[in-house]
Design a protein that fits this description.
- This protein is an alpha/beta fold.
- Helix content is 45%, strand content 16%.
- The chain contains eight helices and seven strands, in the order E-H-E-E-H-E-H-E-H-H-E-H-H-H-E.
- It has helices at residues 14-25, 53-67, 90-118, 129-133, 139-159, 177-180, 184-192, 202-212, and strands at residues 5-9, 29-34, 43-47, 72-75, 121-126, 164-171, 224-227.
- Strands 3-2-1-4-5-6-7 form a seven-stranded parallel beta sheet, sandwiched between helices.
- The radius of gyration is 17 Å and the shape is globular.
- The protein starts with a strand and ends in an 8-residue tail after the last strand.
- The relative contact order is 0.14.
- The mean pLDDT is 95.
């Protein structure tokens, strides 16, 4: 295994935190962006909002100074503003798209500078089963997550000859604080639609992402890898 410098956006909680923990456990140099709070033990936490290009640039500069050029970037930061289409405001739509899709664009654009110079890079975009499967009340979120697929495939065609890969991981239902708060009957209903019959552990998503960042995945680019227990069947 080659030790890399890795940046995970939104790495202070949820899936992002598990991703950062997995990379730390594998011995990599890991930084996380966070608007508040701290990343897991063994990581460098830098303050940044993915909707702010100047803040992201400063965060990357700090990581580069302390850990070295960013070789792997995981665009994980995201928000939801779920509501039915007829009730969704322009702001509900624009904020979600600007954070989830626009944020990934800003992060990848800044990361690509060092990757092009090094002629090496791993770009991993965290989407969702909803991005291609769809979800009622999630027109904004689904659109933003579907857009990541086009982004990864365009980046692959543009930068694939420079030793840079770009892939999408699409998690399904994950065991988090949010899913734990759902009523048991609702959880059971969701699990009925998942062939695996259970929600995923955050670590199961993290391990797939860590593999995509590894030397073993050098010839995979533009792919969408579902981690959803068969819910979306890779749509």
């Amino acid at each position: 295994m080659t030790t890399r410098t890795i940046l995970v956006t939104g790495g202070n909680r949820g899936i992002g935190r598990s991703i950062a923990e997995e990379f730390v456990a594998q011995g990599h140099r890991v930084a996380v962006t966070a608007r508040s709070g701290e990343g897991p033990e063994g990581t460098l936490t830098v303050r940044a909002d993915v909707t702010d290009s100047a803040a992201l640039d400063a965060a990357f500069t700090e990581v580069e100074e302390k850990l070295g050029p960013v070789e792997v970037v995981v665009a994980n930061a995201g928000i939801t503003r779920d509501t039915l289409l007829m009730r969704m405001s322009d702001d509900d739509f624009e904020q979600v798209v600007d954070t989830n899709l626009g944020g990934a664009f800003r992060v990848v654009k800044r990361a690509s500078k060092g990757m092009l110079k090094a002629r090496f890079g791993r770009i991993i975009l965290v989407s969702s089963v909803v991005g291609l499967f769809g979800g009622a009340g999630q027109v904004n979120y689904s659109s933003s997550k579907a857009g990541l697929v086009g982004m990864a495939r365009s980046i692959t065609r543009e930068l694939g000859g420079r030793g840079i890969t770009a892939n999408v991981v699409a998690p399904g239902f994950i065991e988090t604080d949010m899913t734990a708060e759902l009523p048991e009957t609702q959880q059971a209903e969701y699990k009925k639609s998942i062939p695996a019959g259970r929600f995923a552990q955050p670590s199961e998503v993290a391990k797939v992402i860590a593999w995509l960042a590894s030397d073993d995945a050098a010839y995979i680019s533009g792919a969408v890898i579902p981690v959803d227990g068969g819910l979306g069947m890779g749509h």
